[in-house]
Fold this sequence. Notes:
The protein is mainly α. 85% of the residues lie in helices and 0% in strands. It has helices spanning 8-40, 43-79, 83-110, 112-119, 126-136, 140-155, 159-183, 187-210, 226-260, 263-300, 303-330, 332-339, 345-358, 362-377, 381-407, 415-432, 434-439. Helix 5 runs parallel beside helix 8 and helix 9 (226-260) packs antiparallel against helix 14. The longest helix is centred in the middle third of the chain and has 38 residues, at 263-300. The radius of gyration is 21 Å and the shape is globular.
Amino acid sequence: MRLEGKSLKHDFFKFILPAVVSQWVFALYTMVDGMFVARGVSETALAAVNISSPFVTGMFALSLTFAVGTSTIVALLFGQKKIQEAKEVFSQNVAVLAVLSLLITAGVLAGLEGFGRFLGATDVTMPYVKEYISTIAPFAVCFILSYSFEILISTDGYPALATIIVSIGVILNFILDYLLVMVWHKGVFGAAFATGVSQTAVIVFYLKHFLGEKGTIKFCRHRFRPSLILRELRNGFPSGITELSAGIITFVFNQAILRFLNEDAVVSYSIIAYVNAIVVMSMVGVAQGCQPLVSYYYGKGEKKKCRRLLRYELCTVAVFSFLAVGVCYLLADKIVGIFISKELTELLAYSAKVFRIFILSFFLAGYNVVAAGYFTAIERSGTAVIISLGRGLVLLAVSMLILTSLFGGKGIWWAATLSEAMCLGVSAFLLGTGYFQSGT
Length: 440
């Protein structure tokens, strides 16, 4: 049992730092694809990869839903010293995810054209969208299981190992992207294939841990329990929504941009979406990294330690959000220049301008992510769902509707900040109520 160490603060940083790095690495998978596609194919191909990204985000969200749901139960069982039951929970989770992955692959490939239209592909971007998604879809089982394994290795007490493995994956992805896109000129197919192969490779390292002798979580024979799936979904749904929110936000923004602006603005948003993913996933890393600790101490009945961990989380995301906004504001021109050719001066200037507007949402996003993650860790999933659905869908749609009605296309770039601000009011209310105090 490796969930208790030198001190609570030491354990907090021991778990969140690898989790944050892991989230950066996952965000880099699609970002690296975008960088090479923009330079090796075209800006239109970059827009197509961005349009396709909700599919990848959706797979990660499904994986995260089950992984966090399973991790919460496993950590609670660890706190209660029910080790064999924890192994059975883990084993069933892997089997369920494998079956779901195969169904996703079959469904997406069967309805590829319609799926591309649903995501927002136009006649110009459709060939690239179909090429990217049809290449990624056969690797669905690797995407979904690799993300789940990463979280559960951390719950098993090896967060640093999880970071090492995902880092190996992104390095391999970078090398393969360079070879397939820039050297062998395989275009969008090459970028997607590189990502799929990288996800497949890391599965081997994860299995080496779970089949080895070091960890506590092992594969074992188990009885299928439908009630366990429902419990995992209930616990993991808020985190899944938080992960999916990146894809939902991309989808909503793409639709609004195509309606009120033009396809060049989709390129601008593609860059924003990559940076937004890194920043928000950093906040998610804090929440996910701390989740096993909160669930463990909640299972032991040590509620004061749960509240201390929450304070550590809130302070951490406060510092990070200010740093993120400052760095992005100062380096906006250089960041957009990574993706857009110097000859496109108008697009470069416009992208930097709207990027500086959007990043104001970073000041607020972390508090909402942490609040939802904390409620998930103590199995208050209903409260966590309110926050996650608020920031990822409901309040974003309301904000987009209000701002585009008042300011047209210019209002699009302020929608994320307004959405996070409204959600923060909800989060603060829920964290400050007597219900919260009694719950922990």
